């Protein structure tokens, strides 16, 4: 039996920007008895997880595996391994998470430049093309699904421009992975990271990453050691790759069980079906919201299916609305971040949350709100 404290916690429908609803079989997976982290059977499971991740990420990259830590540890992994002092990094900036990239790269001594786009609008190709024609960069980075604004950035088209420049292409897929197509090899992505608690519908705690051969070549050619021991891929690869495995740090075993099960659920449903379900639930939600007088913050055509940002009708206070949903209906939705704080609500339809009964439950609750 769990403690009375744990038993007293509410069962909340998670419709915010993550974590998302977790399937019962993923909770069950977390309760499966531990193996040793160097056990042959556990190593076998690690190989299965890598193969599953390659499928979901659309890549043949050998180095495709979960890092210990949440999505931000994936971001940090990409930068600490690939950036050396003085490297030229260009960040395409249109929300909180690209802002975080600028901070992370700057702390490592990179010469960071950004092109800033208005929040709620996607990265535009013309200014990127112009900038990349002027100067050779070591890394160009972008967020695929910007969770703070609900915008989808054109990662495939940007990838073509980055290829001409010769820079490594770094993409954040924390919110997109498992909810819309991610095709790392076709898009020419060199370094990619994600997180487990968004569309993978797993608790937070692991950060899937993928590195191309070009990215690994840059890592091997470093003049200086990776400045972070815990996230140093040149050592961690020896635990996740090859015939003999070397201890680096203890893998979060139960989290890996959970990730395996969550990936299995997605692959069993079929990637195209999973993506179609996210899109259909998004359309259902948008129709319902607009019917109730809410306005979508992002223009049609640039909206993410799994993260819906809206402004409230006249007279509806977003903070009161969120408190009401949580108290009266046990539904969590998200608030606005940064310049959008107090101005918008963010509704997540991530992974297992993207089901018709959940959309209906939220719309009914919104209808019943009296302000
Ligand atoms: C959530 C998120 C992150 C950070 O992930 P954490 O798990 O909170 O560390 C990074 N990028 C994007 C786009 C996100 O949505």
CATH superfamily of the largest domain: Type I PLP-dependent aspartate aminotransferase-like (Major domain)
Q: What does the main sheet amount to?
A: 7 strands, mixed
How many domains, as an integer? 2
How far apart lie the N and C ends?
40 Å
> Could you name the CATH topology of the largest domain?
Aspartate Aminotransferase, domain 2
Percentage of helical residues? Answer: 40-55%
Instruction: Write down the CATH class of the largest domain.
Output: Alpha Beta
Any chance you could write out the topology, listing elements then pairs?
Layout (H helix, E strand, L loop, with lengths): L3 H4 L5 E2 L9 H7 L9 H18 L5 E6 L2 H12 L5 E6 L2 H12 L3 E6 L8 H10 L4 E5 L1 E2 L4 E2 L2 H11 L2 E5 L11 H4 L3 E3 L12 E6 L1 H8 L12 H8 L12 H17 L1 H21 L3 E2 L10 E5 L6 H12 L1 E2 L1 E2 L9 E4 L7 H13 L3
Parallel strand pairs: 1-13, 3-4, 3-5, 5-8, 8-9
Antiparallel strand pairs: 2-10, 6-7, 9-10, 11-12, 12-15, 14-15
Bound molecules: pyridoxal-5'-phosphate.
The site of pyridoxal-5'-phosphate has 12 residues, from helix 4.
Short description:
The chain is of the alpha/beta class. The chain is built from 14 helices and 15 strands. The chain folds into 2 domains: 4-19 and 270-368, Aspartate Aminotransferase, domain 1 (Alpha-Beta Complex); 25-267, Aspartate Aminotransferase, domain 2, CATH 3.40.640.10.
């Amino acid at each position: 039996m769990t403690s009375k404290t744990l038993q007293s916690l509410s069962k909340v429908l998670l419709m915010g920007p993550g974590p998302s609803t977790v399937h019962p079989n993923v909770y069950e997976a977390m309760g499966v008895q531990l193996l040793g982290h160097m056990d042959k059977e556990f190593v076998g499971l690690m190989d299965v997880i890598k193969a599953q991740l390659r499928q979901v990420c659309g890549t043949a990259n050998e180095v495709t595996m979960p890092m210990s830590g949440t999505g931000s540890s994936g971001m940090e992994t990409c930068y600490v391994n690939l950036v050396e002092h003085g490297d030229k990094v260009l960040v395409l900036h249109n929300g909180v998470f690209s802002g975080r990239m600028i901070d992370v790269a700057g702390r490592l001594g990179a010469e960071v430049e950004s092109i800033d786009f208005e929040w709620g609008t996607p990265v535009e190709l013309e200014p990127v093309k112009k900038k990349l024609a002027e100067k050779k960069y070591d890394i160009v980075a972008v967020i695929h699904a910007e969770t703070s604004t609900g915008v989808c950035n054109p990662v495939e088209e940007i990838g073509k421009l980055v290829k001409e420049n010769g820079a490594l292409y770094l993409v954040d897929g924390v919110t997109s992975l498992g909810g819309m197509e991610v095709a790392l090899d076709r898009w020419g992505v060199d370094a990619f990271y994600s997180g487990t608690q968004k569309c993978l519908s797993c608790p937070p705690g692991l950060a899937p990453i993928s590195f191309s051969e070009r990215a690994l070549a840059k890592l091997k050619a470093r003049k200086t050691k990776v400045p972070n021991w815990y996230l140093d891929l040149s050592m961690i690869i020896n635990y996740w790759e090859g015939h003999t495995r070397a201890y680096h740090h203890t893998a979060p075993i139960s989290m890996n069980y959970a990730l395996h099960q969550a990936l299995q659920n997605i692959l069993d449903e079929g990637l195209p079906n999973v993506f179609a379900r996210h899109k259909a639930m998004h359309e259902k939600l948008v129709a319902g919201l607009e019917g109730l007088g809410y306005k979508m913050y992002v223009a049609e055509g640039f909206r993410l299916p799994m993260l819906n940002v809206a402004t409230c009708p006249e007279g509806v206070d977003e903070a009161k609305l969120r408190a009401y949903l949580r108290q009266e209906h046990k539904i969590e939705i998200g608030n606005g971040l940064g310049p959008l704080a107090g101005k918008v609500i963010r509704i997540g339809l991530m992974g297992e949350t993207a089901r018709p009964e959940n959309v209906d439950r939220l719309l009914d609750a919104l209808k019943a709100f009296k302000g």
